[in-house]
Design brief:
heterodimer, A: about 110 residues, mainly beta, seven-stranded mixed β-sheet, four-stranded antiparallel β-sheet, about 0% helix, globular, B: about 110 residues, about 55% strand
Chain lengths: ~110, ~110
């Protein structure tokens, strides 16, 4: 158990809909990262927050947004969903601001868009 | 995009043998590399990391070797066990960057 909690574990929805994925980092960790894992794209970095502020941005679509709240939990919002958004979405956390390679990953939220 | 990439998508190893997973990178500025293991149905798990001021680093049953001349790193697993069956990723953090960029994974299957 990494200490990172993600909900929901599974989600099935239709194209055009909007979903919110939630992540609680390990106790004491200030950084939260979101990754997308699909079969053909591997693990793709989406975005990182450090202590409530956006720290780094990857290949995150404009239809996607995220935030980190004062209690350090984070949410990833996916809107106008398309079939290609079906993937595993991982949240990870770390103590520092991103200068460490040791991230602690949750077990992921599997999104299926029909 | 990321500069790390794995050599082989799959590796089959006899239980008890040593496993070697190879990874190449293309960015000469890359100076920090990390190996992750992802078991079926789980999130990636940190194994070991190495910075460019080192050629070798050892952990429990694992060794990472870094060859900066040919831009190559490898993960060696000693006495491979069934629990080592997983997908292994090499990853990097570029200087001045904050994101961990993963290469494609190698699926390791341990034969009994």
């Amino acid at each position: 158990d990494s200490g990172v909690t993600q909900t929901p574990k599974h989600l099935i929805t239709a194209t055009g809909q909007r979903v919110t994925l939630r992540c609680s980092p390990r106790s004491g960790d200030l950084s939260v990262y979101w990754y997308q894992q699909s079969l053909d794209q591997g693990l793709q970095f989406l975005i990182q927050y450090y202590n409530g502020e956006e720290r780094a941005k990857g290949n995150i679509l404009e239809r996607f947004s995220a935030q980190q709240f004062p209690d350090l939990h984070s949410e990833l919002n996916l809107s106008s969903l398309e079939l290609g958004d079906s993937a595993l979405y991982f949240c990870a956390s770390s103590v520092g601001n991103g200068n460490t390679g040791e991230l602690f990953f949750g077990e992921g939220s599997r999104l299926t868009v029909l | 995009g990321e500069s790390v990439g794995l050599h082989l998508p799959t590796l089959s190893v006899q239980e008890g043998d040593n496993s070697i997973i190879n990874c190449a990178y293309s960015n000469s500025a890359s100076d920090y590399f990390i190996w992750y293991k992802q078991e079926s149905g789980k999130g990636p798990q940190f194994i070991i990391d190495i910075r460019s001021n080192m050629d070798k680093r050892q952990g429990q049953r694992v060794t990472v070797l870094l060859n900066k001349t040919v831009k190559h790193l490898s993960l060696q697993i000693a006495a491979t066990q069934p629990g080592d069956s997983a997908v292994y990723f090499c990853a990097e953090i570029l200087p001045g960057d904050y994101k961990l960029s993963f290469g494609a994974g190698t699926t390791v299957t341990v034969r009994a």
